[in-house]
Amino acid sequence: MKKIMIALLVITCLTPVKIFAQASTDRVYMFCYFKNNGEDGMHLACSNDGLTWLALKHDSSFVTPVVSKDKLMRDPCIIKGGDGLFHMVWTVSWNDRGVGHATSKDLIHWSAQQYIPVMESEPTALNCWAPEVIYDAPSKKYMIYWATTIPGRFANTDTSGDEKYNHRIYYTLTKDFKTFSKAQLLYNKGFSVIDASIQPYEKGYVMFLKNETLKPVAQKNLHTAVSATLTGSYGSASSAITGNYWAEGPTAIKINNEWIVYFDKYTQGKYGAVSSTDLTNWYDISDKVSFPKGTRHGTVFSISRKDFEAWFGKQNH
Q: Do residues 190 and 138 lie in contact, with contact meaning Cβ atoms separated by under 8 Å?
């Protein structure tokens, strides 16, 4: 029975289907995510249409966290690097000044995990949350970026967030994941911000972000900001692209001419999504998406159907 269930899962992800936006038949969409508090590691789901997501490996984790004092693997982000490897970064702790990193050739077998102390130059920093990584081909550099609170650094909004937190987005650059530039401020527009996720688009780069303001009026919604360059000056946040609910952990992909942004409706215990063809007018399509039960803050990416079949079609777990 176990082999039959796996076969059905693989066939489902390998069989092209028609959706509201016709998906490419030579790509499989992938989603990495965590469950509960991130203790058991990174999970993977697959989809043909970007709407219906099915957990792989019976929704058990593909890699177990071993670095940092808390040994968590929250908010995983996976990209394909310039070296041909998949690079994953993640939140290792609620209260640490570093992030996790590992690589893989096939999303199944992972390298030794690396702890990167990205905020070691800021001894009063409280945390490093929701790191993401993006590869800049012209410079052959990777940019890792994340949210951190440094008490007193932005005193005007120190009381606007949850408890002691008042986040801004920071970044570091590396070519080899051995040496890293000193952390620098990437996004500060006068409010507490977390969960930045950056994608290239025809005019430069678009950052999806969460306004983490709680007081005096709670925001807890998602926005966009754009820049002509990857590390350049991102503009003011757009109006909210999500509705009358709290949302976090945005991750975006463009399927044909349609942008889809997935996010965690964390107070409701489920996932949602919005779509747009112009990054300005957004439509809620939460009722069209389905994710494995318990999915938390993750990242969407795609791989070739050939690779998917080679890697996941031969699993006997």
A: no
- Give per-residue pLDDT as tens, 247-293: 999 999 999 899 999 999 999 999 999 999 999 999 999 999 999 99
Beta strands in 163-295 (DSSP E): 167-174, 184-187, 193-201, 204-211, 221-227, 248-255, 258-265, 270-276, 283-284
Q: What is the CATH number of the domain that holds 186?
A: 2.115.10.20
In the chain, the number of structural domains is: 1
b/e 11-39 (16+ beta carbons within 10 angstroms → b): eebeeeeebebebeeebbbbbbbbbeebe
CA distance 129 to 114: 16
Residue 153 included in any domain: yes
What is the tens place of the pLDDT at every residue in 78-126? 999 999 999 999 999 999 999 999 999 999 999 999 999 999 999 999 9
Domain that holds residue 124: 2-312
| pTM (two decimals) | 0.92
Tell me the chain's radius of gyration from C-alpha atoms. Answer: 19
